[in-house]
Amino acid sequence: MAEHAAHHPGLAHHFVSMEQQKEAGTVGMWLFLLTEVMFFGGLFLAYTIYRAKYPSGFTQGSHLLSVPLGGLNTVVLIVSSLTMAMAVYYSQFGDRKKLLGFLVVTLLLGSVFLVVKYFEYTEKFHHHLFPAVGFYNPSADHPPTQFHQPVRVFLWIYFLMTGLHALHMIIGIGLLLVLIYLTHKGKFTKYYNSPIEIFGLYWHFVDIVWIFLFPLLYLTGYHLSSGGH
Amino acid sequence: MAEHTSEHHIIPLKYYFGVFSLLMVFTALTVFVAKFDLESVWGPLNIIVALTIAVIKATAVVLIFMHVKWSSKLTQVIIIAGLFWLAILLIMTMADYLVRGGWGFPAVK
């Protein structure tokens, strides 16, 4: 017991050292992220199958999305990934002020992403583009041809994939709030920053999902946008 | 005892700024390239270019932002195994769909 008392307070009793604890946490987080890869992978598979089946429906559907807003959100997420990496960097020096600052900036950028997404979704609902009963209205603002089944399939996939991604952003923001509180309380030092590093992995993963979603959903058929629509 | 934690693992900030620049440039590039009708050259060329750019961006994030370049061999093997599993999901399923008739796909006979 006396030996335990000499250990860092952040070291759980079932680990030999801080290094071992950190390695276990990192490996565990990666295993979780890989289950997430398979989770999103199923949706990417659905995307691939239906895109192969309905190429023109995907082109038409993609034209309903705003490339400037999608691009803006891509940039917002990339900057937030940088600020998260900087937060991890300063946590390694135990620089509480800078850690706190970069966590807050990351939180704000994540919120900006969700606000932009909110406006995108609202606009889609407004134009009856949400492909469910009660929202689907072929006589509304858009000509009925745009609501053929292939386009509705694209819109389902768009809402499922971006919705699941947005849910991950919301969870990430919740976790950031906890980390900001704990940082403020002085829980993290240069010797104990694992929660910051491991959360960083999650945040970057969510960024990577968007790196694929942006070209697959928004830019598909972008080269044809001058022609149709 | 535990007082010498991973100080030597700290990655210089210039790596992060490097990845950030790459991500910004490649985002602009993917939007720019998407405007060109590469499909008239070869059917799947647009999507191949878009996915290549996305894979390069994702790899940079994984290696540098997520520190995998400096991670333990165990972590790296786990990640590669996971991506291999994703490849099985995508390739085997598509291989099945693409050779079936009656689902809107050209059947291979």
Topology:
The complex is a heterodimer of chains A (229) and B (109).
Chain A: H1 2-5, H2 18-53, H3 55-63, H4 67-91, H5 96-126, H6 149-184, H7 194-218
Chain B: H1 13-34, H2 45-65, H3 73-98
Helix pairs in contact in B: 1-2
Plain-language structure description:
The complex is a heterodimer of chains A (229) and B (109). In chain A, helix 4 packs antiparallel against helix 5. Chain A has 7 helices and no strands. The N and C termini of chain A lie far apart (73 Å). Chain A is elongated. Chain A has 229 residues and is mostly helical. Chain B is built from 3 helices and no strands. In chain B, helix 1 runs antiparallel to helix 2 (45-65). The termini of chain B are far apart. Chains A and B meet through helix 2, helix 4 and helix 7 of A and helix 1, helix 2 and helix 3 of B.
List keywords for this structure.
heterodimer; A: 229 residues; B: 109 residues; mainly alpha; 63% helix; disordered N terminus
Radius of gyration of chain B: 20 Å
Total DSSP helices of chain A: 7
Poorly predicted tracts of residues of chain A: none
Mean pLDDT of chain A: 87
Would you report the number of β strands of chain A? 0
Distance between the termini of chain B: 68 Å
Helix content of chain A: over 70%
Summarize this structure briefly.
The complex is a heterodimer of chains A (229) and B (109). Chain A is mainly alpha-helical.
